[in-house]
Amino acid sequence: MIEPFLDLLQYRFFTNALLASVFTSISCGIIGTYIVSRRLVFISGGITHASFGGIGIGYFFGFNPLASATLFAVISALGIEFLSKKADVREDSLIGIFWSFGMALGIIFIFMAPGYAPNLMGYLFGSLLTVSHADIGMMAVLTIVVSGFFIIFYKVILFISFDQEYAKTHKAPVQLINYLLISLVAATIVISIRVAGIILVISLLTIPQTIANMFTRKFGNIMVFSVLFAFLGTFAGLMVSYYYNIPSGASIIMSLVFAFVIAKLLSILVTSLRVRTAYLNETGRPNNK
User: Fold this and answer.
1) Taking the CB of residue 198, how many other CB atoms lie within 10 A of it?
2) What are the extents of the domains in the chain?
3) Which option is the CATH number for 2-283: 1.10.3470.10, 3.40.1080.10, 1.10.3720.10, 3.30.70.980?
4) 10 to each of 3, 148, 209, how far by Cα in Å?
5) Terminal-residue alpha carbon distance, the chain
6) Which pTM does this prediction carry?
7) Distance (Å, whole) CA 35 – CA 20
8) What CA–CA distance (Å, rounded) separates 28 from 50?
């Protein structure tokens, strides 16, 4: 098992995919913990699909699609955050508007792009084995920014995640941090599209965190375990994708879902054993029911 893996490391595309797995796992593990704790999954889904407009714009004007998608996603995220607080429009309605607008805009620009229509399968379902050096660079920069931001503002982010009113009473810059965090959420989502695709990327931001939450309730520990589970799932999906020639995004998510099922079964088993042990300790006799 080890020798075939070492043989794969001589291929540049595989080492790029492995580096992408590491960087994506770190950024998604950290940002995903914030998303789950703030219950921003629906907003994240809207940002994900809105970013498709940036991909279409990038293809039409000849830009890097990921770079234009990142800019478009950040603008969309800031628009949702601003308008939901300043305009008399419900947040879920704004998400639906930006979601559909981004998808429609992307389709129009891709249709109008000169030459052959680009293959969008990699953006819709992920293509980890085709990650470029430019993608790796963007992922590395994002990982450094996200990690540094959470290290510096950890306590403020912790307060904002669970009690924004309490944070305001301590004169924390809640609104500014919210804008910065939603921008990082948007950037992380777009950069992770190369790994899991537009349709599946939200799972990479929620499943590892859900698994981690089965074993710990502490915010910092959830981030650490989320990074670990995200990498294990991404690496397993990468190997399955390579050997069976299936889309990397789907294989990664299936690996994470499989890990979730195993973790849930183990959690149920451990809980049952604890209940039985507690019953035996209290009654001093076996539970025959």
Assistant:
1) 27
2) 2-283
3) 1.10.3470.10
4) 12, 32, 33
5) 46
6) 0.85
7) 21
8) 19
Tokens of 228: 């670990």
* Full DSSP string of 217-274: --HHHHHHHHHHHHHHHHHHHHHHHHHHT--HHHHHHHHHHHHHHHHHHHHHHHHHHH
What is the sign of the dihedral through the CA atoms of 56, 59, 65 and 67? negative
Place 26 in a pLDDT band, splitting at 50, 70 and 90. Answer: very high
Q: Residue 278 in 3-state DSSP?
A: helix
d(CA 56, CA 110): 5
Residue found by looking up tokens 């790029």 in the block: 16
Please answer whether residues 236 and 255 qualify as being in contact, where contact means their C-beta atoms are separated by less than 8 angstroms: yes
Express each pLDDT in 97-108 by its tens digit: 888 999 999 989
* Coil, strand or helix at 132: coil
| Six-digit token string for 66 | 């990921």
Cα separation, 231 vs 204, in Å, equals 10
Residues 234-274: tens digit of each pLDDT = 999 888 888 888 887 888 889 999 999 999 998 888 888 88
